[in-house]
């Protein structure tokens, strides 16, 4: 069954067309690979689309660096890439001065390294604070490190839609708190935490603050240096479009470099990488948080997306993100609110990242039906469809197509 073109659909269609017409970032959409058979890609918050330029970038790398310079490229360029790309990422998207951001490992490995280092830097404190609904990796690693180190996990249980508040954190931290681990944007509801205020609360107790930026970097402006953030970790394959399995990055505030002891002491984090010394001596600065050989090939797609973000600016990307999520909620109100579908995301755009979540008991199998028709959101247990709106590659008309497809399936 297809929903008739009701007055609501006509109104939404006209609104989407006008929003796309006046969108000063709309031209960026042509820089991404087209996806054959896809009507609406609404999963950029899980895996960003590839850039057209990545084809040439990878081809040039194979021909002119790997294929021609061979192992000499390590000395000429590759050895510095984790830090040079990290510095650029810090400047463009994090509000971080040079020497504090490094691209390496996976999100999971970096979380382990930095959580372990942080709690050991507070030896007289025996609690780690984390939200009970945080992403599984974050929770699993915290639980494992707490068990290994004889510490206790204190769980924060915030409102599931509004997310973690400053008041929630204030009630949880104490002189016993070694570390607080939170996500900047909740992977389920899209709730956006007040990073500056929460960080201030945590640091006032003498604890260390670690932020997971996986669902915010590239679409939400942030000032890690100015806000006093101690540590941050994130993947690069969502809004940074680094591709499946792209390496993660870590931000470590300069004042902590000497105090945090690297728990995975690999050769690439040593002071003299090729000295082959008998004992480990950490490199100076952010390089000490590297463990093994950097994934050079896997870093390359990220550099192209940083070009786009720098050209567009995170502030303008954020403005379009707000426009897209506002419009998606308008479409929900008009087409789904009367079908027993609930909005599981904040209505206030200041408290929301770049995805919204809709809830209904039928959404597990319905998501698979949507995928078969070229409408691609994602599903999160137990009953949520996430509509991820990646601003540089997604239009308002695409967002409307997704919500309309859900409504049509609900009618069926």
UniProtKB/TrEMBL annotation:
<keyword id="KW-0663">Pyridoxal phosphate</keyword>
<dbReference type="InterPro" id="IPR010111">
    <property type="entry name" value="Kynureninase"/>
</dbReference>
<dbReference type="InterPro" id="IPR000653">
    <property type="entry name" value="DegT/StrS_aminotransferase"/>
</dbReference>
<comment type="function">
    <text>Catalyzes the cleavage of L-kynurenine (L-Kyn) and L-3-hydroxykynurenine (L-3OHKyn) into anthranilic acid (AA) and 3-hydroxyanthranilic acid (3-OHAA), respectively.</text>
</comment>
<keyword id="KW-0662">Pyridine nucleotide biosynthesis</keyword>
<comment type="pathway">
    <text>Cofactor biosynthesis; NAD(+) biosynthesis; quinolinate from L-kynurenine: step 2/3.</text>
</comment>
<comment type="pathway">
    <text>Amino-acid degradation; L-kynurenine degradation; L-alanine and anthranilate from L-kynurenine: step 1/1.</text>
</comment>
<dbReference type="Pfam" id="PF22580">
    <property type="entry name" value="KYNU_C"/>
</dbReference>
<comment type="similarity">
    <text>Belongs to the DegT/DnrJ/EryC1 family.</text>
</comment>
<dbReference type="GO" id="GO:0043420">
    <property type="term" value="P:anthranilate metabolic process"/>
</dbReference>
<dbReference type="GO" id="GO:0030429">
    <property type="term" value="F:kynureninase activity"/>
</dbReference>
<comment type="similarity">
    <text>Belongs to the kynureninase family.</text>
</comment>
<dbReference type="InterPro" id="IPR015422">
    <property type="entry name" value="PyrdxlP-dep_Trfase_small"/>
</dbReference>
<dbReference type="GO" id="GO:0097053">
    <property type="term" value="P:L-kynurenine catabolic process"/>
</dbReference>
<dbReference type="GO" id="GO:0005737">
    <property type="term" value="C:cytoplasm"/>
</dbReference>
<dbReference type="GO" id="GO:0009435">
    <property type="term" value="P:NAD+ biosynthetic process"/>
</dbReference>
<dbReference type="GO" id="GO:0019441">
    <property type="term" value="P:L-tryptophan catabolic process to kynurenine"/>
</dbReference>
<keyword id="KW-0378">Hydrolase</keyword>
<dbReference type="Pfam" id="PF01041">
    <property type="entry name" value="DegT_DnrJ_EryC1"/>
</dbReference>
<dbReference type="InterPro" id="IPR015421">
    <property type="entry name" value="PyrdxlP-dep_Trfase_major"/>
</dbReference>
<dbReference type="InterPro" id="IPR015424">
    <property type="entry name" value="PyrdxlP-dep_Trfase"/>
</dbReference>
<dbReference type="GO" id="GO:0030170">
    <property type="term" value="F:pyridoxal phosphate binding"/>
</dbReference>
<comment type="subunit">
    <text>Homodimer.</text>
</comment>
<protein>
    <recommendedName>
        <fullName>Kynureninase</fullName>
        <ecNumber>3.7.1.3</ecNumber>
    </recommendedName>
</protein>
């Amino acid at each position: 069954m297809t929903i008739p073109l009701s007055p609501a659909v006509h109104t939404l269609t006209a609104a989407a067309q006008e929003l796309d017409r006046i969108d000063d970032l709309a031209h960026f959409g042509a820089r991404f690979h087209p996806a054959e058979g896809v009507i609406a890609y609404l999963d950029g918050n899980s895996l960003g689309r590839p850039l057209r330029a990545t084809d040439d970038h990878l081809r040039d790398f194979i021909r002119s660096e790997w294929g021609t310079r061979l192992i000499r490229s390590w000395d000429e360029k590759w050895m510095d890439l984790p830090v040079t790309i990290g510095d650029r990422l810090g400047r463009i998207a994090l509000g971080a001065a040079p020497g504090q951001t490094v691209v390496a490992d996976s999100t999971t490995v970096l979380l382990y390294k930095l959580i372990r280092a942080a709690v050991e830097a507070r030896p007289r404190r025996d609690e780690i604070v984390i939200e009970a609904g945080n992403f599984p990796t974050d929770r699993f690693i915290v639980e494992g490190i707490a068990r290994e180190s004889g510490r206790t996990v204190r769980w924060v249980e915030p409102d599931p839609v509004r997310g973690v508040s400053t008041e929630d954190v204030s009630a949880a931290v104490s002189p016993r708190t070694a570390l607080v681990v939170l996500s900047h944007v909740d992977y389920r509801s899209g709730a956006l935490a007040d990073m500056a205020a929460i960080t201030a609360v945590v640091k006032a107790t003498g604890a260390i603050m670690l932020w997971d930026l996986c669902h915010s970097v590239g679409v939400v402006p942030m000032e890690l240096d100015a806000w006093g953030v101690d540590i941050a970790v994130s993947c690069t394959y969502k809004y940074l479009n680094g591709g499946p399995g792209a390496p993660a990055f870590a931000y470590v505030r300069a004042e902590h470099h000497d105090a945090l002891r690297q728990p995975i002491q690999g050769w690439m984090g040593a002071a003299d990488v090729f000295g082959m010394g008998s004992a480990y001596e950490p490199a100076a600065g952010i390089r000490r948080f590297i463990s093994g050989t950097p994934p050079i090939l896997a870093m390359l797609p990220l550099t192209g997306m940083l070009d786009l973000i720098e050209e567009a600016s995170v502030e303008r990307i954020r403005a379009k993100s707000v426009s897209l999520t506002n419009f998606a909620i308008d479409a929900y109100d008009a087409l789904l609110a009367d079908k027993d579908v609930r909005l599981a995301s904040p209505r206030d755009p200041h408290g929301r990242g770049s995805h919204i979540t809709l809830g209904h008991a039928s959404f597990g199998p319905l998501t698979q039906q949507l995928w078969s028709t070229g409408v691609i959101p994602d599903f999160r247990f137990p009953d949520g469809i996430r509509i991820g709106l990646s601003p540089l590659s997604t239009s308002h008309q695409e967002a409307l197509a997704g919500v309309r497809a859900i409504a049509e399936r609900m009618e069926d």
